[in-house]
Amino acid sequence: MIDKNPNYKELYEEVCKLYDKTKHFKHGPWDETYFTLRVFESAKDIMNKLKEKNFDKETILVAAILHDIGKIKVDMESVIDYSTSDCFDKPEFSREWRKHPILGVPLAKKIMRKFGYSEKFIEKVCCLVKNHANRKKDFIPSLNLQILQDADIIADCGYAGFIRPFLFGGKFSYANVIGSIKYIQKEKHRVEKKGFLNLDVSKEIAEKKMKLQKRLIKEISKEIKSELL
Fold first, then answer.
1. Domains plus CATH for the chain?
2. By C-alpha distance, which of 150, 175, 149 is closest to 28?
3. 73-77, 90-94, 135-139, 148-152: which has the highest mean pLDDT?
4. Does residue 151 contact residue 64 with C-beta atoms inside 8 Å?
5. Nearest CA among 66, 80, 78 for reference residue 32
6. Is residue 62 within 8 Å of 144, Cβ to Cβ?
7. Global pTM?
8. What value does the mean pLDDT take over residues 190-212?
9. pLDDT recorded at residue 80
10. Where are the alpha helices (DSSP H) in the chain?
11. CB-based contact 44:65 (threshold 8 Å)
12. How far apart are CA 120 and CA 59, in angstroms?
């Protein structure tokens, strides 16, 4: 049965096609083809290290591939100005960005139905897609959702946390290489902020990745040690 033997590569190729059709999500700071891959692999890392095995591996991994697909329906044109980064601090950007989990549910259903997944499996995956960004204090996530949420954060640290700020800086005219280096020198990563990660094994994985990221930052920081700055 396909529910227990998902073709992950087939699903990934499907979402990549959708991202490739967009203006914003196929390259640069929002390269969702790369980020989706990293969330998928980070979820596997977490599950491999968990002692308790009462999670649904197939549901989590399919959700990892589909969780951000709603971004293709976000109205980025109305909130993004590529001449400045100030747009990210505006309330309208935050409101628009927060829509993507809900917008992703009908897209995820359509994709899974195309490939023949059962309605029961589809509902379980869509529950994770809908709630992957839900971190309200009164909301208690299932183990499946905790794994997906942690993978979503861990996917952006280590090499990715080092590379993506340069992609971001290159996309917006305010930043050059020097600006990007200064940014990563001072910016605190989300995994280091209290309460972002659910599971102890996720914290262990994140700690190792952040050591690598900080080592890379330390090395590249030498490039701008100059009397000119």
1. 8-224 (1.10.3210.10)
2. 175
3. 148-152
4. yes
5. 66
6. no
7. 0.91
8. 89
9. 74
10. 8-20, 32-49, 57-66, 91-97, 100-114, 119-131, 143-154, 159-171, 177-186, 200-221
11. no
12. 11
Check residue 139 and report its DSSP letter.
Answer: -
For 136-156, write each residue's pLDDT tens digit.
888 889 999 999 999 999 998
CA end-to-end span of the chain, whole Å? 62
DSSP structure string for 64-110: HHHTTGGGGGS-GGGT--TT-SGGGGSHHHHHHHTTHHHHHHHHHHH
Q: What is the pLDDT of residue 85?
A: 64
Angular region, 23: left φ>0, alpha ψ -120 to 50, beta rest:
alpha
Select the more confidently predicted residue: 186 or 199: 199
Query: In terms of Cα–Cα distance, which of 156, 174, 148 is closest to 64?
Result: 148
Q: What is the DSSP letter of 195?
A: T
Q: Taking the CA of residue 102 as centre, how many other CA atoms within 13 Å lie in the half-sphere pointing to its CB?
A: 6
CA neighbor of 18 nearest in space, from 125, 116, 104, 118: 104
Contact 208, 194 (CB under 8 A): no
Does residue 151 sit in helix, strand or coil? helix
Cα distances from 101 to residues 28, 116, 120, 219, in angstroms, run 21, 22, 19, 37
Tell me which amino acid residue 135 is: R
* Packed helices 8-20 and 57-66: angle between N→C axes, nearest 10 degrees: 10
